[in-house]
Predict the structure.
Amino acid sequence: MSALSQQKDLLELELPSDPRFLAEVRRTLRDWSLQHRWTAQQAAKIALAVDEAITNIIRHAYKCDPNNRILLTVRAIRKPSEGVEIRLRDFGQFCNPEQIQGRALEDIRPGGLGVHIIRAMMDFVEYAPAPGGGTLLIMRKFRASKAAKPEVAKNAEPRKRSANQ
Amino acid sequence: MQNPAKGLRINSAVRESGPVVRVSGEVDLRTSPQMREVLLRVAHKNPKRLIVDLSDVSYMDSSGVGTMVEIKRLVERGGGRLVLAGLQPRVRSVFEVTQLDRFFDIAKDINDATHL
């Protein structure tokens, strides 16, 4: 895993599609979030969302082949509201949001939970085909966030699309 | 490559109430297969009650939660019951966000788990 750029409000990492690096990415995200005045609880939620997103890339875009690239960009944002924007770029098979939208929560089985967790942790989630192939995932979380409260997710209908919110 | 993730620590013991599997560390895509392997081995013995002590698990993602769903199904097919014990707040919140806190028997600690 290598840092491409680390400025005050910007962190850029390149990592292999290898699950061995997930713990290090989580630590890096938590440290960055704490340095940018997120609470420990918020930092843990940001790290969880990124972990789930990278897990989906490894599983769906790269079919568990650990020898591919993932680019992670984390940027502090000021507008429209103060928060963080996270971009994850892969170069694998485009992950159609319809295919990775996750299952209905009532349909209890082992897989398909990652997308629900990402949407519960973040305020904005968008998947798009990346220029040149692969997928660009953009996630945003705002300080005045309503996301990530379990009781909110409990009462909400499972969202079926990644929508601009 | 540097700083690869550490593995989980997993210990199994048999108590009066049945088998207890204690997991310690962080459960993610890398480590959940290790946990799954141990839990499958215990679950295949058709225990009446299988307690998984998660009090030393500081992190769990959807791959760990998914493993628990699979093990619960397996234990119940054998006529038994899976009880999760000692979830730290951040681990518990993952079950809550996925609404699986309603699906699992979750005990405060090992002692409570033996009475559920």
